[in-house]
Specification:
Number of strands: 2
Helix content: 40-55%
Radius of gyration: 13 Å
Structural class: mainly alpha
Largest sheet: 2 strands, antiparallel
Shape: globular
Number of helices: 3
Order of helices and strands: EEHHH
Length: 74
């Protein structure tokens, strides 16, 4: 997905390199964990106010792209 703004960042100095939402210390995996636990996007955003709705949606779109388009390449 060329030319897109990076929404997930990994830095060894931030949570030991765990992928986080840019500009936060919120692990990207937390969003997926919320959904797996039956929580809504709004609940996630309420609990992690440093993550914007746009960031969360972009992360979900990235996951969709990897799952749908990536599976075609396999």
């Amino acid at each position: 997905m060329p030319g897109e703004v990076k929404i997930i960042h990994s830095d060894p100095d931030i949570l030991g390199g765990t992928p986080v939402f840019m500009g936060t210390r919120v692990p990207a995996k937390a969003l997926l964990d919320y959904f797996k636990g039956g929580h809504s996007l709004d609940q996630f955003l309420d609990d992690f106010p440093t993550v914007s709705r746009e960031q969360a949606i972009a992360a979900l779109e990235l996951a969709e792209h990897l799952l749908v388009d990536g599976s075609r390449a396999a």
